[in-house]
Specification:
Layout (H helix, E strand, L loop, with lengths): L3 E7 L7 E6 L7 E11 L1 H7 L11 E2 L4 E8 L11 E4 L2 E3 L19 E2 L11 E5 L4 E2 L6 H4 L5 H10 L7 E5 L3 H12 L3 E6 L4 H9 L4 E4 L8 E6 L6 H8 E9 L20 E4 L5 H10 L9 E5 L3 H9 L6 E5 L2
Helix pairs in contact: 3-4, 3-7
The structure holds zinc ion (2 copies).
């Protein structure tokens, strides 16, 4: 068993991550030690690294909450997993279990949560510890590198997706990155029409959306050919909120799927009138995870990944910052 591991560490927001050697952590009671095979690079990681979130992260910090790997050791009392089993570690690392939200089926809003790669070290490292109760077994048909983006982009994207409602047929996705490219495949398989909105001039993004079965792809400042039943905004751009409201029909829902957005410009009440709804989505519940993996059981989701070795994590974050990724970035670790 190794005692030291490589990790990419954030020492100060706004500065690049640094490759360091750290002791391999010990799993406490109820925890598992996971040897990380792959870790996705989420938009949230970039917001944390850039200091854009209102709550400062625990520093120094190992980012990463789209973690896939094999259980290397079990802490006291863990019975649900076995050494060698492939698991994923998501963003929701732990909850208090006793606050109003935890006891009302909204553990995603827990008053004292632990978040992987934010308030606890995550997966930009060779090993990571996690609370076993918050990990998922990885379905056997999935390989670690292509599965990594499912763990947050897919899973929290799925929570957003459910808020559009069962009846929504025409869905707009604003920002066609990691989440949208996964959810578009699920929506198309479920017989829905997906309208993809990309940055003005992003021809490659437009083509990518059409390849994945979207019925229309155009610029985020354009109106779709039909009013939409609902829209999900994945891009961290506040100006998309009024744009999406203008694209949805009466009673349409606009879901903001990200943890951070630039300020939302003011807009006339007329754009919200007729029972249009704006809502945000925060974190995930364990039930979201279980239901997401169930929903994709018979839908062969192909995640498009761009891989980087662990020590190139800064380059992956840069590509995300500049909007240069097609699909999702994944660190391949072992
Ligand atoms: Zn709680
Ligand atoms: Zn994430």
């Amino acid at each position: 068993m190794k005692t030291k591991m490589r990790a990419m560490v954030l020492h100060r927001c706004g500065e690049p991550l640094e490759l360091v050697w750290k002791p391999v952590p010990d799993p406490g009671p109820g925890q598992v030690l996971v040897e990380v095979e792959a870790c996705g690079v989420c938009r949230t990681d970039q917001h944390i690294a850039d200091g854009e979130l209102p709550e400062p992260p625990q520093l120094p910090l190992v980012l990463g909450h789209e973690v896939v790997g094999r259980v290397a050791a079990l802490g006291e009392g863990v019975e649900d997993f076995a050494v060698g089993q492939r698991v994923c570690i998501p963003w929701l690392g732990a909850t208090c279990g006793s606050c109003w939200y935890c006891t009302h089926d909204q553990e995603n809003l827990c008053d004292s949560p632990t978040f992987t790669g934010y308030t606890r070290d995550g997966g930009y490292a060779e090993f990571s510890v996690a609370d076993a109760q918050f990990c998922f077994a990885l379905p056997p048909q999935l390989d670690p590198v292509h599965a990594a983006p499912l763990v947050c982009a897919g899973l929290i994207g799925f929570r957003s997706y459910r808020f559009v409602g069962e009846q929504a047929q025409r869905l707009g996705f604003y920002g066609f990155g990691a989440s949208a490219h996964i959810l578009a495949q699920l929506a198309v398989a479920q017989g829905r029409e997906v309208y993809a909105f990309v940055r003005p001039g992003d021809e490659e993004g437009r083509r990518f959306a059409l390849e994945l079965g979207c019925v229309w792809a155009g610029s985020s400042d354009a109106l779709p050919p039909h009013p939409l039943d609902a829209a999900i905004i994945f891009a961290p751009v506040g100006a998309l909120v009024p744009a999406a409201l203008r694209a949805v029909r009466k009673g349409g829902v606009v879901v903001c799927g990200g943890i951070h957005m630039s300020p939302i410009p003011s807009f006339p009440y007329q754009d919200l009138w007729h029972e249009r709804v704006i809502r945000s989505v925060a974190n995930l519940t364990r039930r979201d995870g279980t239901e997401f993996f169930k929903a994709i059981e018979n839908v062969p989701i192909r995640t498009h990944v761009e891989t980087y070795p662990l020590e190139k994590a800064n380059e992956a974050l840069d590509a995300l910052r500049r909007g240069q990724l097609k699909g999702a970035a994944v660190l391949v670790i072992s």
